[in-house]
């Protein structure tokens, strides 16, 4: 796994540099400063999935970097908005004060909005994909993944569940998380195949299992994690009396389910043979991570 950690760290620094370069082209403002702050740090796992998926399909690394920066801009926006008082009301993210705490709510909303549009600007450029058809596919699939049929829908269902009288069932939580967390992960893993105009089915199966394992690991981390390593407040689910994979399956059951999903994710990569080693490592990483 040490070569995986080195590859992830190297990818993270290239993706962040690309994203910061793009943000720096905007006129100087408090919103620009907040965008740059929100884009800093984190694992950049989604961007890493884009780069690996692109490598498997023979896409040039510089081209793939554009889409990797775009998905990390969308992810950063989602975290800034998720942390707002109207949503999760968090004061700590990636070990630092959240954007609305460091600036104010209006700046955090606007920085999230601008990261969101910046992502689509990156994907719409000629350099984002080899053909106009592939570029359009990247954009429209991102609309589905990030919007009202994907991440936003999952987030809305999560918020509604907090106010509901009855806790969600396992099937409902699984569906909710497929939108809230899974949709961006799926987009990332399929992006390289989309750029190449190739079949996305194996990577879709990989990403669906990976996304669910990622969310189960997040629920486990909320209970067992170290807040300093995680860089965010923990035990929020229990405090909110929220139904999670852990509350429904138990801690051991949730961990066993996550391990099964990692096995499924790894198996789904069989068409790519040994070339998909780093994606297999990424699946192991999501359930072993401390942050
Ligand atoms: C505001 C529309 C909207 C959606 C928010 C991302 C999200 C949806 C909510 C975040 C809440 C949360 C903790 C979800 C669990 C999974 C998750 C997205 C964790 C954070 O992602 P990581 O671990 O973070 O990849 P880093 O900091 O490494 O980028």
Q: What structural keywords apply?
A:
single chain, 291 residues, mainly alpha, Farnesyl Diphosphate Synthase, two-stranded antiparallel ribbon, 15 helices, 1% strand, globular
Task: Describe, in plain words, how this protein is organized in 3D.
- By secondary structure, the protein is mainly alpha-helical.
- It has one domain: Farnesyl Diphosphate Synthase.
- It contains 15 helices and two strands.
- It has helices at residues 2-24, 30-39, 45-56, 61-82, 99-102, 105-124, 132-146, 151-163, 170-196, 201-224, 227-230, 236-239, 245-249, 251-268, 277-288; strands at residues 92-93, 96-97.
- A two-stranded antiparallel ribbon has the order 1-2.
- The protein starts with a helix and ends with a helix.
- The structure holds geranylgeranyl diphosphate.
- Geranylgeranyl diphosphate binds next to α4, α8, α9 and α10.
Summarize the helices and strands and which ones pair or pack.
Blueprint: H1 2-24, H2 30-39, H3 45-56, H4 61-82, E1 92-93, E2 96-97, H5 99-102, H6 105-124, H7 132-146, H8 151-163, H9 170-196, H10 201-224, H11 227-230, H12 236-239, H13 245-249, H14 251-268, H15 277-288
Antiparallel strand pairs: 1-2
- The count of β-strands is 2
Structural class: mainly alpha
- CATH 4th-level superfamily: Farnesyl Diphosphate Synthase
Query: How large, in whole angstroms, is the Cα Rg?
Result: 18 Å
Write the CATH fold name: Farnesyl Diphosphate Synthase
User: Whole-number average pLDDT?
Assistant: 95
Bound small-molecule species? geranylgeranyl diphosphate
Highest-level CATH class: Mainly Alpha
Please report the distance between the alpha carbons of the first and last residues: 16 Å
**Gross geometry:** globular
Q: Give the total of domains.
A: 1
Helix content: over 70%
The sequence of SSEs as H and E is HHHHEEHHHHHHHHHHH
> Low-confidence segments, ≥5 residues, pLDDT <50?
none
Helix count, per DSSP? 15
- What's the CATH architecture? Orthogonal Bundle
- Order of strands side by side in the largest beta sheet? 1-2
Name the beta content range.
under 5%
- Biggest beta sheet attributes: 2 strands, antiparallel
């Amino acid at each position: 796994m040490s070569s995986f950690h080195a590859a992830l760290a190297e990818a993270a620094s290239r993706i962040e540099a690309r994203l910061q370069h793009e943000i720096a082209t905007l006129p100087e403002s408090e919103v620009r400063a907040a965008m740059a702050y929100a884009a800093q740090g984190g694992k950049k796992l989604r961007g890493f999935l884009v780069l690996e998926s692109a490598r498997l399909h023979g896409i040039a690394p510089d081209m793939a970097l554009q889409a990797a920066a775009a998905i990390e801009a969308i992810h950063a926006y989602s975290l800034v908005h998720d942390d707002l008082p109207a949503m999760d009301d968090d004061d700590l993210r990636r070990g630092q004060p959240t954007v609305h705490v460091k600036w104010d709510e209006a700046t955090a909303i606007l920085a999230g909005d601008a990261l969101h549009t910046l992502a689509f600007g990156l994907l719409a450029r000629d350099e984002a994909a080899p053909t106009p058809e592939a570029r359009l596919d990247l954009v429209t699939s991102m609309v589905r993944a990030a919007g009202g049929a994907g991440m936003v829908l999952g987030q809305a269902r999560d918020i509604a569940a907090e106010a509901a009288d009855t806790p969600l069932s396992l099937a409902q939580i699984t569906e909710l998380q497929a939108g809230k967390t899974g949709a961006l992960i799926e987009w990332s893993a399929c992006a390289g195949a989309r750029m190449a105009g190739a079949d996305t089915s194996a990577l879709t199966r990989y990403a669906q299992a990976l996304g669910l394992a990622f969310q189960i690991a997040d629920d486990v981390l909320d209970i067992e994690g170290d807040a300093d390593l995680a860089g965010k407040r923990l035990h929020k689910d229990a405090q909110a009396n929220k139904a999670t994979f852990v509350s429904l399956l138990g801690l051991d059951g949730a961990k066993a389910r996550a391990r099964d999903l990692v096995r499924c994710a790894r198996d789904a990569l069989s068409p790519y043979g040994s070339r998909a080693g780093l994606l297999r490592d990424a699946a192991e990483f999501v359930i072993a991570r401390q942050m």
